[in-house]
Amino acid sequence: MEEWTGQLKEIIHGKWSDYLLSERLVEIRDESWEQECIRQIMNDEKHHYEAFQRLHHQITGDYFRFEPDFSRIQDYRGGLHEAQQKEIENYRWYRHMLLTAPSSEVSTPFYIAMTDDIGHAILFGTLIAAAN
């Protein structure tokens, strides 16, 4: 269980980093339809972060505190590629966490994040194609 909660902490930290990356992408892009797509992803990332924090609190009695990593992307297209790769990696990680969850009661946040993140990866792919 300790290893599983350690991985949950990494996921919480990663979710907040994903949120900050999306926030940075919105800041550097001036196309409103692209910004709207990324804002939808940002909203999902924030909800996932909050759900994983609640889960951590439910399991340990505490919220996980950490120093956030701020995104230092160089350009919009590169940031989209980074975001897409992270979403694909997250999908795989959440599937693992879902399958190794200590009980079915804690699996819902992973299922939601897993299905949302594969959709995000597809959307980032669309934004990459549009940025060409």
UniProtKB/TrEMBL annotation:
InterPro entries: Ferritin-like_SF. It comes from the Bacteria. SUPFAM superfamilies: Ferritin-like. This is Rubrerythrin.
